[in-house]
Amino acid sequence: MASEENPRLATAIDLYRRGLVSQGKAAEMAGIPRADFIDELAARKIDVFQVDFDELKREIEETVEVRPGRANIE
């Protein structure tokens, strides 16, 4: 399903790409299952994972705090 044929999908993809909605919310807005939304993203070469560096670093640091001795991030 091309976004040109479905304005709801085009809008949902745009909002997702800008980080304003989650995949689940975007799929709901587009009226399609989340798996289909992910397929639509892949077909358009849009990253299905959107994690910024600071968020990723924080998650790694939290993991290291919970599991000391398993990794060293310095």
Please state the structural category. mainly alpha
Q: What percent of residues adopt helix (DSSP H or I)?
A: 55-70%
Report the average pLDDT across residues: 85
Largest sheet: none
Radius of gyration from CA coordinates: 16 Å
| Count of all domains | 1
Shape: elongated
* Total DSSP E strands: 0
Instruction: Tell me the number of helical segments per DSSP (H or I, 4 or more residues long).
Output: 4
Please mark out the parts with pLDDT under 50 across 5 or more consecutive residues, or reply none.
none
| Strand fraction | under 5%
List the helices and strands in order: HHHH
Distance between the termini: 46 Å
List keywords for this structure.
mainly alpha, 74 residues, 4 helices
Would you kindly provide a brief summary of this structure?
Helices cover 58% and strands 0% of the residues. The protein is mainly α and 74 residues long. The model has no long low-confidence stretch (mean pLDDT 85).
Secondary-structure map with pairings?
Layout lengths: L6 H11 L5 H8 L3 H10 L9 H14 L8
Helix pairs in contact: 1-2, 2-3
